[in-house]
Queue: 4 jobs
Job 1
Amino acid sequence: MRVSAKADYAVRAAAELAAADEGPVKGERLAEAQEIPLQFLEHILLELKHHGIVRARRGAKGGYWLARPADEVTIADVVRAVEGPIADVQSTPPEAIEYRGNSEHLREVWVAVRASLRSVLEEVTLANLVSGELPAVVEELTSQPDAWHASTSTKEMTS
Amino acid sequence: MRVSAKADYAVRAAAELAAADEGPVKGERLAEAQEIPLQFLEHILLELKHHGIVRARRGAKGGYWLARPADEVTIADVVRAVEGPIADVQSTPPEAIEYRGNSEHLREVWVAVRASLRSVLEEVTLANLVSGELPAVVEELTSQPDAWHASTSTKEMTS
DNA sequence: GCACTCCTGACCTAAGCAGTCAGGAAAGTC
DNA sequence: GACTTTCCTGACTGCTTAGGTCAGGAGTGC
């Protein structure tokens, strides 16, 4: 249930590419702009390339650019490219699990979890991200003050 | 962005406890009912105890039971007990991260991601889970057929 | 031919995941 | 008081992932 450094880096690099309106951007510049270790970033960009998110050219005047327009690439695309399926349970998709006994309905819950993640990640495009004009879903979720607190319920006790 | 076996086991064991209406249930029975390795489960139950989710007594007629009524324990409570904070980015809460350059608005996106997870996990109680009467949020999310497919968008190409 | 940049595989350390093993400590029973 | 039952705890293990670094190879442009 956590976002890896890799996914975070990938999205930030992609955002930087989305903002660069002309010509290839070289890895070094992306690394500097977002303060990401260069060599690590290169591996990430390679993965993004293999998944058809970015393209690249070598040599002088080389660099990376988005394979598709920035408003057609969602954050979900980028995250999936580097992390694989979103919201797997025990490394298998939630709809493929059979639960017995009193946890029969747990599958629906995990499916709902995945759906709710998608409702955010698949709605926000890189264009949204750089312009700051985030979709209504996001605005609604972030407008509740609770959303900005580390933990909401404090019913638990430290037995 | 994945659910660990530990979290899955923890919720299932908690569901089993929620369904047992009278007296302590011993670990062995929980392990059998949900097909969880007993020794592993005992560690999990211990963590749940330390977080005040369950209580326990040793000896004959001993076992585990919920510390609070089943309709006051949410899945979020259980998951947090064994996995820690729910949607940390790079092991820090999203609201604590400073983004520069073109990814300035990424923080809002991660906060929205966390909020959307909470909107599911904090709404579903163990009582909901065992009865199958899931909250409206969940019903809405799972009623869309897309929610049951492994992947929705197929815009990407394998470069 | 040379500089530049991406491309790739190998490697590394630390941590986490998913457990198992062995023994100790309370609670109840006889 | 001995004995059984059950939880409690720490140590350990094997494997994978996270988060990188290093060294070199392969296209590209001049």
Note: Residues 154-159 of chain B have pLDDT under 50 and may be disordered.
Job 2
Amino acid sequence: MRPTVHDVAGEAGVSLATVDRVLNKRAGVRAATVARVEAAIVRLGFVRDIAAANLAKQRVYHLVFIIPDGPNSFMRALERELEQVRSNSVLDRTEIRVVKVPAFDSTALVAALESLDPATISGLALVATETVGVRDGVARLRREGVAVVTMVSDMPASGRDHFVGIDNVAAGRTAAGLIGRFAGQRRGKVALVAGSMLVRDHVERRMGFDQVIQAEFPALECLPVLEGRDDAEIVRELLAQCLEREPNIVGIYSIGAGNRGVIDVLQARPAYRDLVVVAHELTDHSRKALREGLFDAVINQDAGHEIRSAIRLLKARIDGTRIVDGQESIRIEIYLRDNLP
Amino acid sequence: MRPTVHDVAGEAGVSLATVDRVLNKRAGVRAATVARVEAAIVRLGFVRDIAAANLAKQRVYHLVFIIPDGPNSFMRALERELEQVRSNSVLDRTEIRVVKVPAFDSTALVAALESLDPATISGLALVATETVGVRDGVARLRREGVAVVTMVSDMPASGRDHFVGIDNVAAGRTAAGLIGRFAGQRRGKVALVAGSMLVRDHVERRMGFDQVIQAEFPALECLPVLEGRDDAEIVRELLAQCLEREPNIVGIYSIGAGNRGVIDVLQARPAYRDLVVVAHELTDHSRKALREGLFDAVINQDAGHEIRSAIRLLKARIDGTRIVDGQESIRIEIYLRDNLP
DNA sequence: CTAGTCTTGAGGTACGTATATCTAAACTGA
DNA sequence: TCAGTTTAGATATACGTACCTCAAGACTAG
């Protein structure tokens, strides 16, 4: 049988109360006694039963998720996953609050951070925009004992406990590898469609993409990025113009949330079906485009996985338990028509 | 606050003992009373606190994993993951026993199933080989109340509760899509290297591969399968001979556990570097081959995910709780050099 | 040495559920 | 209607941990 606090007390030759004081880091125990208890814990291999502890403690994990508002489909996917987790969360003593802030607006994000009372929340997950104010806000919460993870876009300087998301440079490199090889012998240009070059993940993807195209596919050349601001209308216009202007385009890399516009353009002319197209984010639209052969590959990160991972990481931080690294690494998923889930 | 059994008793106008009898399906309660209690549960949205219940019940989940012995690297990966879970499982009232049976030996598997006492185990996960004996053995355990999931290779007729694994036909189709497109304009033949055509997953992958090559890549033609029996030596010999014999091979699909032999052959001649090679299973060897450009893509299923998923599914079945579908679907992962985790 | 503080012990109650026992009430059949 | 059975209630204990109180023992400073 697993050892309990009673066994630890016996082994250390102290009372239950003392073991409890040591376990829960309460004051009033001599250093020598603390050492005795800790030695007993190690000898017995005692591990606190967190379920029982949480029951006794009446613990509720108060978690706050701050995510950008707006049309970005990945953010909306995160929101949907959160909603789903919330509806099932009666079971696991977890209370999740979702705070939406205007996208790309770090002032609003700072305000949201400041409105959080460290006393009432135990964990925070946020999609960070990298500014000093945000960094300081996060650092303050960390100092007050709040567990913090960043999602999608990292911010190491803030002292967050973990980052949940993919390596976007690698994602860009992956896209380039796919386009380069799918293009085969063809020579020509590649159009890049992004949301905005002010967002770190898009910048990083573009960087990785450029690296690989330049180094490995001399027959291809990247055109300047079209910034579609996550707006189908704008993307449609910019991309259509670009395809008119440049006769020699062989591929398109849709870096961010602009798939709808890209699809519209591709459907407009049969000739565009020969283009090699790689996009990000598996949605109903991109899935359909993949099945119909408009897209050749979609690179994805699993929103559900990211949400669940963030929650696990926050709880582990709060409980002081270990994590399984493999379970928390977010994969750069590649989908072709044939391996759609 | 969340309603408790006390609240249910109050709401239904019965005693705690009666609520307990209903919740735990014990006899001695009139149908009308059961209905009253159940109505109260619905009205209050009562959900049993499983942590508290397990604490009171002193429940330990006794899980048995039956996996094939032998050199198959994916099976060994499953075993390693199980070992890791076991070492962390002090925490979660889970006791995992791993039973290894000779690969492809259904008699041994049947014997292993028969040696299991349904009274002492609550869940079983097994890599099934499809025979009547195995099916009946599983069915017997199911009838006796044991939760059962099949892994890697399914067996629907056994009445198992779930299947944990990928769609191998789709995996084969995916491999074909990659080889076909990476080959570009080239015409020629594709060599297939499998472990054995007696194993369902290899057969299915081959089927999916053939389908897509025939339908979409008329310039390519599949050669007969080389059966390497998961043995590097045999694979090396067969594949080397094949490449000598057939001057016009443009690609290789390594269907199963034979990557070591394939890699040896590829390294032997610089000319072989131009071959398009897609293999299964991400291991140290295949990862290295990918980085060095010997392999063009590796298709993988995450062993850690499968083990964790099997455990979650078994526990959910035992506790009668719901599962999150998205979390349990095993993906057909594609790795290129650039998206290696 | 004494008063004061610091450290430890003993014991109880609580969390939400499971389970056992004993008793009382409500039915059933003849 | 009465005995016999079925159904229901009341109450207690337990699971492993947290946290509280009260009292007593061990120190420290003056």
Note: Residues 62 and 214 of chain A are 48 Å apart (CA to CA).
Job 3
Amino acid sequence: MAITALKVATWNVNSLNVRLAHLLRWVQTDPVDIICLQETKLVDENFPVEALTDAGYRSLFSGQKAYNGVAILLRQRTVGEADDIRTRLPGIDDEQRRLLAATVDGIRVVCAYFPNGQAVGSDKYSYKLKWIASLHEWLRAELQRYRQLVIAGDFNIAPEARDVHDPQAWEGQVLFSEPERAAFRGLLGLGLKDGFRLFDQPGRMFTWWDYRNLAFRRKQGLRIDHILLSQELAASCRSCSIQAEMRALEQPSDHAPVVATLELASGASAGD
DNA sequence: ATGGCCCGTAGAACGGGA
């Protein structure tokens, strides 16, 4: 029985058109096996399939014009074909493309772009909570079907005070309101583990920094992008880190990637 | 300082993001 290392990442690119070069450079130096992308902002006809094929990745995507849009990239050498692909969340029937799920080598991979919510009490905030409730129920069923499940994405929720640069200022604000935090805890209650918190981490570790106010340089961020793992995958997780250097590049996304490394026992691994 | 930036759609500002 061989041990296979599998790297899973999530990154909100804030327009894949603008960030494609960053993505290609990243995977050239660090060939992550499974990459969940959010805010691609591309209709499917414009998805850069060819550039990613040349880079060694199969692309799954669900896009719309101007907003939202999610994708899963699968490294051809190390990951098998995708199966049971889903783009819709039961109970949410609109044009917003925020979910993409696929089964790869027996692992259920869920890429999620949670609604932002705009402001507590707004219609968009209500939509956010409704969307998460629908996701919760769907994930409950998925976890019955799959022992190995990972949900990676932009959750737009900072789970705890230590995930916020200034918790007092952010308390009760969108991204750090109690109903949102409770919804996040609800997902953990399904048996999912926050990959980043499986390990001791330094303080002030964030995944998003506002473009304004020199927020990145001032370390004024939030940890809102997450990789949650089913119990079985959590047991196989060896590290989980934030690629903050990506936020320091020229013309960066305002989000940094999060990467988890799993060590899986497997009988066969294509290409290795 | 009741904001500052970035992206897409525009074809000028404006909605949306977080």
Note: The longest strand of chain A covers residues 2-12.
Job 4
Amino acid sequence: MRHVADRAGVSYQTVSRVINDADGVAPATRDRVLAAMRDLNYRPSVAARSLARARTDTIGLVLPFPVDVTFANAHFLQTIGGVDRVVAENDYSLLVSSPNDEDPALSAHRRMVRRRAVDGVIVEAGMGDEGIELLVEAGYPVVAIGHVAVAVPSVQPDDESGAYGAMQHLLALGHRRIALIAGNAPANLAQQARLRGCRRARIDAGLPLDEDLVATGEFSLESGHEAAARLFDRADPPTAVLAFNDAMAIGAMRLLRERGIDVPHEVSVVGFDDTPTASLLTPSLTTVRIFSSELGQRAARTLIGMLHGTKVPPVPAVLPSQLVVRQSTAPARRG
Amino acid sequence: MRHVADRAGVSYQTVSRVINDADGVAPATRDRVLAAMRDLNYRPSVAARSLARARTDTIGLVLPFPVDVTFANAHFLQTIGGVDRVVAENDYSLLVSSPNDEDPALSAHRRMVRRRAVDGVIVEAGMGDEGIELLVEAGYPVVAIGHVAVAVPSVQPDDESGAYGAMQHLLALGHRRIALIAGNAPANLAQQARLRGCRRARIDAGLPLDEDLVATGEFSLESGHEAAARLFDRADPPTAVLAFNDAMAIGAMRLLRERGIDVPHEVSVVGFDDTPTASLLTPSLTTVRIFSSELGQRAARTLIGMLHGTKVPPVPAVLPSQLVVRQSTAPARRG
DNA sequence: TGCGCTAGCGTGAACGGTGACATGAAATCC
DNA sequence: GGATTTCATGTCACCGTTCACGCTAGCGCA
């Protein structure tokens, strides 16, 4: 195939030079080569190139869940959107690997390791760190998105102060009985950070965290609905709900509407993530914005930097989060 | 690297045989080789392998929009979920390419073509067929998901009879003034098929299609909301709405709720896609199920079949669609 | 005993590029 | 005007695998 190219032109290795537009090629020959390439509709083979150069210009992306469930989560959606954008800009390709049913925890990582087809890997945290260790052991540069315990560079939102701000906001509005709809994976570090933030805000206000007002869900709208049902079935229901993502907050709002409880005048609701729909609801949702897309972009940029030789210390880069106050929160009623 | 392996064992090409578990290897040697591979923590190089075998065991996926917007659409989400599953099952990798801002129509295809890194490509239809032609010219096996005019194998839902069924259902309930919330790309073939279905149902009932009751949106919840606003601002609002996807139907329902119009007793609403949320709404949404995930699975299986040498004629495989009647439709009021 | 067959393994040549170095011609220098 | 530098191009080895052979030893069989 290369032979064809230089038959059209004159030489051989020169073609390679042209392709990699190295200097030291006369404009005239370059043009001839380019023309020949076009005529023969020649495309270089990545396989051969990556064999010779020992790199693939491809970045792996390991998802925590199958594609359809991962992307059903607005936060992940935005994050990966950010990754995608940066990857494309820098002319890398994106190879995705998602877990299969048999071995949700590790199969995606394993598949990525087995075929040595990527230069580096971006991992969505959240399913334990074993898989990440696997990748690191296999010698891949790895950047994690989210909270990880392993020593790899990572980018993460400031969950703790996000939660702190949200809780503080509710406290400032006079709420005292504040329910949490948290995640159902206590080991999850993001979860822990958020709980820490909530706890700290309450301590700073001189109040303990009301442990039995902590319900859990699995980040879907439905689970938020169910969790809220449990909370509002109680004899002494909360006056405010802080959910650990927007979907669950929306689920809670739906339950409240069904029960005829007014948001925000009877109960305030706060979400987490600031997904696009949050602002479109009625009432629009007060929520903690965590800049998901930026998270992904930053991760991708970091990894690409590493591939270009930049040394990145294995510490998390923390992106600030920010409380967005909208209509779903209001002062607590007297009484 | 291979040298290391056979140093540990005894031979050289035998290692290759072991890796591809070809026969003609004594169990004893095989074990020794495997042990050596493990000891040296050896992983074969995809690059070299694909160079030698002239295939990459990777399937390309060309998305119509950037990752974050593509997957925000529940239909695409499910579809790609199906693709992902089958691809993983068959031990292929998935390389995704999405368009950039400068050249939305073709950049994703081009990028896929340029680097010759995949064995075949799955394309989501909907952004014109030029890109697909590009891929075909470059010699890739291509399977399209959705309606295409190019001569490549494709899988598509039966949009026409889906729409027919939905329209018929509304007509049977006694509705006459039935509004459509269609897409805003008249050239889109899926769109045309659905319109055809609607029109046919009305003709079969002896009624023409009411052209000025056709609003358009861009398949988001908000656009459905806006389209519905236009429809119900009219002096003679419709008694039923048929939206071309669930998101727009939900947007329409939201508008109706805001205006205090009861669904289904005053106005019936029908969606398209049967997304997971459709069944969770109150009232739950009557909608046309199009088996998105199956669509994706089928496409992936078809492509993999082609890669294994199966000849597939360049005709669409049509998956039946099916009307799911739930609570959002009711008989038209008298008068 | 001699022959052919087969199972098991090794050999050499691709696959399609890249990178280091060598070469030759033209341009520059003294 | 010869020596030296510079620019443009060619040569060669190698990246890590697979594939099509070829070789060898052991076995069965006449």
Note: Residues 10-14, 17, 23-26, 29, 48, 50-54 of chain B lie near DNA strand C (CB under 10 Å from a C1').
